[in-house]
Amino acid sequence: MLLEIQGLGMDFPQGGLFSKSTLRALNDVSLNIAAGEAVALVGESGSGKSTLAKLVAGLQMASRGEIRFNGAPRADAARDDIQMVFQNPFASLNPVHDIRHHLERPLKLYGLNKPGALKELLEKVGLDESYLTRFPHELSGGQRQRVAIARALAPKPKLLLADEPTSMLDVSSRMDILQLLGRLRKETGVGLLFVTHDLAAARWLCDRILVLYAGQVMEMAASDTLLRAPKHPYTQLLLAAATHGVSLETKLPAKPGRANTIDPTPGCPFQNRCLQALSECSHTTPTLVGSEHQVACHLESR
Ligand code: SF4
Q1: What is the pLDDT of residues 199-218, one digit of tens each?
Q2: Binding-site residues, ligand 1, Cβ < 6 A
Q3: Global pTM?
Q4: Closest CA to 195 of 219, 217, 164, 169
């Protein structure tokens, strides 16, 4: 198994030095990704999906749980094996350096700066050598994201973490970047953890979808299965919102209160928004059940 995540949790202290309040950003998340597999993390803002990607990237240390890569603890993974593409291509490139600098640096760092390596890297992402002397401000958002992807691919990683790589791009560039990621998956065999709030993009690009809410896994299944027959009321709500053109980042209907991610109380984290809530939902936290299609909802055990 390429990536194994077991019981991962992440807490952030809230309210200053002497406060005991805690924001539980992730709680008991488990996920495996096979070599070459693509998995989408889907959820609205604050669901914990970017936190999960950062923990896998090694940018933050988890409060609980374990991450293993290629059978060994994450901390032992080679630095070049896991690379990340960030959401904002306008911030992820250094404005004072040209594109040659951005791409040459990782190649030199990992001893891969052979003749023709830069050209090959640019061609992989649909650019040519004329871009080497340009600066980030001379490129469009889509072109910058292509450079960011090329930089991430430079050390030939086994797993690419893409944190909402299309959310700051215009519609046509979004499709271009999705197609690029799909092609790169096929050509390089790189595994992909794709963070998104776009269900259609998740289905198009990924083998499986994991739905997060308030830092917990609500549902996980093959992409087609999950979108054709969603079982969790939250996934059903997301799908309904997407079908009616409502962004997940806007307020969804039937939302009398937010999930309590601060010092969480017992019960289902989705109970305040669920139209199908049962009496046990307020005091018993549902656990994930199922194998191929996993769901954390008391309705499943009825
Ligand atoms: Fe709704 Fe209860 Fe299922 Fe949570 S466990 S999604 S509140 S029915």
Answers
A1: 999 999 999 999 999 999 99
A2: 233, 268, 270-271, 274, 276-278, 281, 286, 297-299
A3: 0.90
A4: 164
Nearest to 235 by CA among 262, 204, 210, 272: 210
**Do β-strands 72-73 and 294-295 pair in parallel, antiparallel, or remain unpaired?**
unpaired
119, two tokens: 């050209």
Q: How far is the CA of 244 from the centre of ligand 1 (A)?
A: 23
Distance (Å, rounded) from C-alpha 299 to C-alpha 266?
A: 17
Give residue 256's pLDDT band: very low, low, confident or very high (50, 70, 90): very low
Q: Ligand 1 centre from 258 Cα, in Å?
A: 14
Distance 216 CA to ligand 1 centre (A): 13
The pLDDT of 243-248, averaged and rounded, is 63
- CA-nearest of 256, 237, 189 to 42 is 237
Q: Which residues contact 183 (CB under 8 A, 6 or more apart)?
A: none
Ligand 1 pocket check: which of 219, 232, 258, 271 to mutate, most ligand atoms within 8 Å of Cβ? 271
CA of 191 to the centre of ligand 1 (A): 32
CA distance 250 to 113: 45
Which domains, from first to last, does the chain contain? 3-81+157-301 (3.40.50.300)
What contacts 55, CB < 8 A, 6 or more positions away? Answer: 8, 10, 26, 61, 62, 67
C-alpha separations of 120 from 44, 93, 117, 186, 208 in Å: 37, 20, 5, 16, 30
Nearest atom within ligand 1 for CA of residue 232? 6
Are 92 and 141 contacting, i.e. CB atoms less than 8 angstroms apart? no
138: tokens are 């001379």
Determine which residue's CA is closest to atom 3 belonging to ligand 1.
297
How far is ligand 1, taken at its centre, from the CA of residue 285, in Å? 9
Q: What is the pLDDT of residues 91-135, one digit of tens each?
A: 889 999 999 999 999 999 999 989 999 999 999 999 999 999 999
